[in-house]
Design brief:
Number of helices: 10
Distance between the termini: 43 Å
Radius of gyration: 20 Å
Strand order of the largest sheet: 6-5-4-3-2-1-9-10-11
Shape: globular
Helix content: 25-40%
Length: 330
């Protein structure tokens, strides 16, 4: 029976991915919203609290309008019971620092055939936590490191300590080796005007610690501060100058795969269309009241998908979106 269930699950995921892909392509070609299957990927916000005060982050800057809190483990269990059989990828982060959740390790389940990812600012990776992560079955751990000395790092990561983060990366790397863990460690470097000269040094560090490195373009939410952060090297910019303003390089075509593939669930059970809806301005439904399937196929989602297909440029959260923008990592 167990073998039979495993074989069924191995079939369900690729079949669901094909259905989702087919419905997305059909919708973009026809302009009519067709929804088949369930999401292929899911973002889950464990908390929107954070220990840092990054000035261009909705959570850290204090600009976040919605309530703060921690996801209930039972809510997460219900979500995974419904969606787990279909998911190929699970991101256990959205806004905030996920490792601040008092029950953080309760969310690190070894979901077979599901690629699971956590992104952290790296301030809670002591030896004990690093070993727990290495043994948890987590697929990938992203650790933000936006500078290799304290002055450069703390210019953006306000309230952070670069030595703590670097030590945390080393702790996870050592735990990975000790337990022969398959967890991938990725250093994420948000490129800005103040730290771009340190790219060679962080690249050398990643090679030495045997981690991967991701150079990420910086999202700027305060238009008055664009000039303070934009890298000199234009290939790391997600914005271009136009009529005296900085706008996203993306042409924002009337389509977006995120609406057919990877929604986000906030800590309190709200379903939002994607990871660019940081303030949950476009709530598609509440998992405390309805099942995910009802929300996914419901009128709010259908209406929002229709608006994407007919005028994506008019939707506020899309104006910072890099989805489909080549050469820029969001």
């Amino acid at each position: 029976m167990l073998l039979e269930q495993t074989m069924i699950q191995q079939f369900v995921r690729p079949a669901n991915a094909l259905l989702a892909g087919y419905s997305y392509i059909k919708s973009t070609v026809s302009g009519k919203t067709t929804v088949n299957g369930m999401p292929v990927s899911l973002g889950v916000e464990l908390t929107n609290h954070c220990n840092l005060h990054c000035p261009e982050c909705s959570s850290g800057s204090g600009r976040m309008k919605r309530p703060r809190g921690f996801m209930d483990v039972d809510l997460f269990s219900r979500v995974m019971k419904e969606l787990g059989p279909y998911l190929c990828n699970l991101n256990l982060y959205f806004q905030g620092e996920p490792m601040l959740h008092p029950q953080f390790f309760s969310f690190l389940r070894n979901e077979k055939h599901t690629h699971s990812v956590v992104s952290t600012n790296g301030h809670f990776l002591d030896e004990e936590n690093a070993q727990k992560i290495a043994r948890s079955g987590l697929s990938k751990l992203i650790i933000s490191l936006d500078g290799v000395d304290q002055d450069t790092y703390s210019a953006y990561r306000i309230g952070g300590n670069v030595d703590t983060v670097i030590k945390g990366i080393k702790n996870v790397a050592e735990a990975k080796k000790k337990y022969n863990s398959s967890v991938e460690i990725e250093i994420q470097f948000v490129v800005n005007k103040l730290n771009e000269y340190q790219i060679p040094r962080v690249r050398e560090m990643a090679q030495r610690l045997k981690t991967s490195l991701s150079l990420k373009s910086m999202q700027i939410i305060d238009k008055e501060n664009v000039g303070n952060w934009l890298p000199v090297n234009k290939k790391f910019r997600r914005y271009r100058s136009h009529d005296g303003e900085y706008i996203i390089k993306n042409s924002l075509p009337d389509r977006c795969a995120r609406l057919w593939f990877n929604p986000v669930v906030t800590w309190d059970g709200k379903v939002v269309p994607c990871c660019f809806d940081k303030n949950a301005e476009f709530v598609m439904g509440d998992l405390n009241q309805d099942s995910f399937r009802e929300i996914w196929n419901g009128p709010k989602y259908r209406s929002f998908r229709k608006s994407i297909l007919s005028g994506r440029y008019m939707i506020d959260i899309c104006r910072n979106c890099t989805s489909g923008l080549r050469g820029v990592k969001y």
